[in-house]
């Protein structure tokens, strides 16, 4: 996604790089990530984003030769669920936010969420 002036929206490149790491299924070098992302990104740009993701504890790294390999700390589903919980945070209007979210779901997602909530309740009462 880009803005009107053709620039990427904040966080878009980080999300693309995380997507490449999740899809890769194994640790990757900056060069490998660059190859997956493509889009004419400079190696230094990919390296900088990987370093930032490491500083944010979203990826781990290990030195290999003169560089590093990187891998995600969490799988994609866990990371997304964490972001959703973070967005709710300590909001005073949590119920309203959840209501708006629920209202935005299509029928199949709403059914899936109902089933998952029922399963979660059963596990809690065991």
Description:
This protein is mainly alpha-helical. The protein is built from six helices and two strands; from the N terminus they run αααββααα. A two-stranded antiparallel sheet has the order 1-2. Strand 1 (about 60-65) and strand 2 form a beta hairpin. Helix 1 packs across helix 2 and helix 2 packs across helix 3.
Tally of contiguous helical segments: 6
Question: What do the pLDDT scores average to?
Answer: 91
**Percentage of residues assigned to helices:** 55-70%
Class based on secondary structure composition and strand pairing: mainly alpha
Give the low-confidence spans: none
What is the straight-line distance between the termini?
45 Å
The radius of gyration over CA amounts to: 19 Å
SSE series = HHHEEHHH
Major pleated sheet: 2 strands, antiparallel
Total beta strands: 2
Shape: globular
List strands and helices in order, with pairings.
Layout: H1 12-24, H2 30-37, H3 43-55, E1 59-64, E2 67-72, H4 76-88, H5 94-104, H6 107-124
Antiparallel strand pairs: 1-2
Helix pairs in contact: 1-2, 2-3
Summarize it.
This protein is mostly helical and 126 residues long. Helix content is 60%, strand content 10%.
Features:
single chain, mainly alpha, 6 helices, globular, two-stranded antiparallel ribbon
């Amino acid at each position: 996604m880009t803005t009107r002036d053709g620039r990427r929206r904040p966080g878009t490149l980080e999300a693309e790089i995380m997507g490449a790491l999740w899809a890769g299924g194994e640790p990757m070098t900056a060069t490998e990530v660059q190859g997956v992302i493509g889009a004419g990104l400079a190696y230094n740009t990919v390296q900088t984003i990987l370093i930032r993701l490491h500083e944010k504890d979203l990826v781990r790294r290990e030195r290999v030769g003169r560089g590093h390999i990187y891998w995600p700390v969490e799988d994609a589903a866990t990371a997304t669920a964490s972001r959703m919980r973070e967005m709710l945070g300590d909001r005073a209007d949590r119920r309203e936010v959840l209501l708006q979210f629920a209202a935005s779901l299509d029928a199949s997602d709403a059914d899936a969420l109902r089933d998952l909530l029922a399963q979660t309740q059963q596990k809690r009462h065991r």
